[in-house]
Sequence to fold (474 residues):
Amino acid sequence: MRYIAEHYINELEKPAEKLPSLAEIRGFFVKHRFAFALGLVSLFMYGMLYEFSTNLTHIAQETHAGHKGLFFVPIIIALLFSAVHGSFTSRFWDMLGVKAKTQAA
Amino acid sequence: MDAVNFIDLNLVTVIILFVVGFIGGMVSGFIGSGGAFVLTPAMMSLGASGIVAVASNMAHKFPKALVGSMKRAKYGQVDVKLGIIMGIFAEIGVFMGKEVMTGIRAAYGNTGTDLYVSLVFIVVLAIVGGFVLRDGIRMKRKGGSDEVHITPKLALWVQSVNIPGTMMRIKCIDNRAISLLFIAPMGIATGMLAASIAVGGFIGVPAMMYVFGVPAIMATATELVVAFVMGMGGSLFYAWEGFVDIRLAMIILAGSLFGVQIGAIGTTYVKEYMVKFVMGMIMIIVLFSRLFKMPVYLSDLSLITTLSANTSDVLSKISFATLALALLAGMLVILTALIKGIMEHRDETAAAHALREYEASLAVTTAES
Fold:
């Protein structure tokens, strides 16, 4: 027990953590480069969604009015967005260190 | 044909939708079923009509179900055959449900669909929310989270019925055979509910568990396959009619995919009864949110004495505030559980590590002496 208590005291007495060095920051970006790339692609896609939002509601109105040529557009958008944004978000929390509980050994 | 009402999006509504999506996703990741029972009412509270809210919700859900089912298939929790067969029957149900919705819209306008969606919500949430809370309380009394799977009596009877020419072997119930005549109505009911409120799992999961005897964990995983098959079909049906507001769906998706991960991580830190409590609590609060809005719809359809504009406004605001309360309460409980769990887990791991070091040092000292 004493040993465990000492472990905690040592933890408390540790000097404050230093700011990460440039190399460490670079390492972080390199390690998670795929997540960052996905994030950027996702952001770009949302930018496009904003840009073309009026066209999208127009397509829906047209489809409702009987011009069915582009009715599948929302479905394609849904599939694309969930694939890209889904892969990004699953890496996002992992990158921040929020992970599922693993069985303690 | 009249135009579909799509809500105007400004910065405030976009932020609200993102946050609602995040919390809805968190709740759905935590309780393991679609957060659509939060998202559909939320979209309606922001001004989307019932039919657009349901259609857009389906469009954001089915690709998520695909990703989720593929993940859980890796753990061997999915019965693909049962999922696809039920999904196909659910498709028929979705088509029937959509016909009901478009029929109501044609006869009573958008408010008609609002009233119908809210009514189905209130009935379903009261029944399912009540059951879930009762289960949670029972589980807490027993003190454990591990339930041994016992095949329910109804399922034993269903498994014993043999109707030649309709039997289908199901892998996840020890390869026993079930008649398609039982699977069909359950699938159709799941689809009809999904087309009405965008959450079919409230029928699909209990049906698989209690009527077919599928273990809970496999039922929820297989439901994802059903959700994908019928969600894809349902979205196509609704998209064909031009009711999908893809802007709404994708903003909600942006938040919900962040939330779903956090919710799923959260479950690994809490006991199962906690999950049921949160689920039941949110369901009951959402139910009240819809209940407050009922007089407004009834009055708009002239089914009761017309309410003054002021009363309608106050009731709409109370309904929205109640929904916000449900979301915030859910978020608070889940985040608290997650943070507490992570910290406790860290302490436990550190203590276990220290103990191992201590034992190792003891062993060295003994060896030296």
